[in-house]
Amino acid sequence: MTSATGLSRRDFMKNAAAAGAALGGLSILGATAKGQGRVLKVGLIGCGGRGNGALAQHVEAARILNGALKWNLEIQVAAVADYFKHKARPAAEKYGVTRERCFSGAEAYKRLLETDVEIVLMATPPAFRPLHFEAAVKAGKHIFMEKPAGVDPPGCRRVIAAGEEARKKGLMVIAGTHCRHQKNYTENQAAVAAGAIGRILGGRVSSCFGHLGALRPIGSLDPRRLVYSWPNWTELSGDFIVEAHIHELDLMNWFLGTHPVSAVGFGGRARRPAGNQYDFFSVDYEFPGEVHIHSTCRQMNGCWNWDGELFVGERGISRGWQGVRPKPVVPAEIPQQGAGHQQEQIDLLYYLVKGQLLNQAHDLATSTATAVMGRISAYTGQKILWREMMEDPARQPELYNLQLKPTAEDFEGDFDAIALPEEGVVPLPGTSA
Questions:
Q1: Residue pLDDT, tens place only, 219-260
Q2: Model confidence, pTM
Q3: Backbone region of residue 75 per phi and psi (left: phi > 0; alpha: psi in -120 to 50; beta: other values)
Q4: d(CA 222, CA 49)
Q5: Cα 166–chain centre separation
Q6: CA 266, 268, 274: angle at the middle one, nearest 5?
Q7: Distance from C-alpha of 52 to C-alpha of 82, rounded to nearest angstrom
Q8: Which CATH class is domain 196-327+365-417?
Q9: How many Cα atoms within 13 Å fall on the side-chain side of residue 122?
Q10: 423 - beta bridge partners?
Q11: Dist. CA 148–CA 85, nearest whole Å
Q12: How many beta carbons lie within 10 A of that of residue 48, not counting itself?
């Protein structure tokens, strides 16, 4: 049986007990059980639309918990950081952050992590996630990080390793795979895990909708413009199968209870005017026991759309959020308000104050690697095996070590040495490594 975070009840209780013991029986934040009079200092790394949204939801989560549970939490936005000063400043001004704690530039995250913030919300472009997450764990911060965990196999493994360090340190890690915090998904997944539809035999997941991204070519490119227009570039976003479709692939892994063993996919670029991403992907994911899930995603206007999931079991079906008799797993006192983006912030603060360690780093990195595996298969036209990409460096070292460039570290070095992608140039299956 799994909880709202994807942990089994046994693992959840074991982790919570370990965290409590490590902290001498106090809550993680050292406050009382009801958080009376506690001021929580939070910092935001990545002040774009999703970052500002997460911060607003974080502040609102405290208000919701205070109202529902008669707590007395106060959120103090203590620092903000962004690659661009013109993005960091409005966020700082909105929350009364001083100029001394408003950081910008490629190393702004380092300056923020040197402050006394206790909780860090991370919403930078995905290519920066492994580096920033690793640094936040080293700094001893509790973390919310947006999806995905990275853009390539080494990045995913890096997040898994840092996640284990966070577990040892007793740090909270909540991921932006928000469906795992929505009550309907959580209860249906628990019912499926308990055998409500029998063994899953197959299914499909999909996120097909209209065009997202730039509406015209980006044109002349330099490192700063590359970062500014990151959703259009595979090197920084992972392509949209990784950046956006990860939600459905995460649900797939969650309901199947494991990751796929292989992927065979195809895709292409037909109408996208900017960047270097595909317009569509179709991937056959094979799970242990010869169970196949068909994954489709597309971002093109004027086409039929479907965003959802369907799992076919021996004794019935589940559509992810419905289709079986729900199995309650969420503590009744946790207020359920808003969609998953709001609920993940409520859960973060609730479990943090309760002193219960939740760590979603491994699940996020595994689902990200699943998406990366599908992308690589579509780009190359080859069957990609999980063990070769994520586990055994000797079998296919070029796959195991495949790293997209420029890396996050490159942006902290010599700008003139940064390799820039070519607009409109995409991998051709059968010819691309």
A1: 999 999 999 999 999 999 999 999 999 999 999 999 999 999
A2: 0.92
A3: beta
A4: 22
A5: 16
A6: 145
A7: 11
A8: alpha beta
A9: 33
A10: none
A11: 24
A12: 18
H helix runs in 266-394, sequence order: 340-354, 361-380, 386
Question: Under a CB-based contact definition with an 8 Å cutoff, are residues 204 and 312 in contact?
Answer: no
Secondary structure (DSSP) of 232-248: G-HHHH--HHHHTTHHH
Separation of alpha carbons 149 and 365, rounded Å: 5
CA distances to 57, 285, 291, 322, 368 from 202, in Å: 36, 10, 5, 17, 21
| Rounded CA separation 154/262 (Å) | 18
CB 429 within 8 A of CB 381: yes
Q: What amino acid occupies position 303? A: C
Which CATH fold would you assign to the domain 9-181+332-362? Rossmann fold (3.40.50)
Nearest residue to 154 via CA among 320, 398, 430: 398
**Other beta carbons less than 10 A from residue 284's beta carbon:** 17
Q: What span, in angstroms and rounded, lies between the C-alpha atoms of 389 and 292?
A: 19
Nearest 5°: the CA angle 72, 74, 78 is: 165
- Nearest CA-CA partner of 121 in 65, 164, 63, 58: 58
Position 97, amino acid: V
For residue 330, what are its two tokens? 């969420």
Q: How many alpha carbons lie under 13 Å from residue 141 in its C-beta half-sphere?
A: 29
Give per-residue pLDDT as tens, 165-205.
999 999 999 999 999 999 999 999 999 999 999 999 999 99
Q: What is the DSSP letter of 364?
A: H
Domain ranges of the chain: 9-181+332-362, 196-327+365-417
Beta-carbon contacts of residue 423 (< 8 Å; ≥ 6 apart): 217, 218, 219, 221, 274, 275, 276
Cα(369)–Cα(365) distance, rounded to whole angstroms? 6
Q: What's the alpha-carbon Rg for the chain, to the nearest Å?
A: 21
Q: Which residue, chain included where needed, has tokens 């910008």?
A: 104
**Contact (Cβ atoms closer than 8 angstroms) between residue 352 and residue 28:** yes
Give the separation between CA 168 and CA 176, rounded to whole angstroms.
22
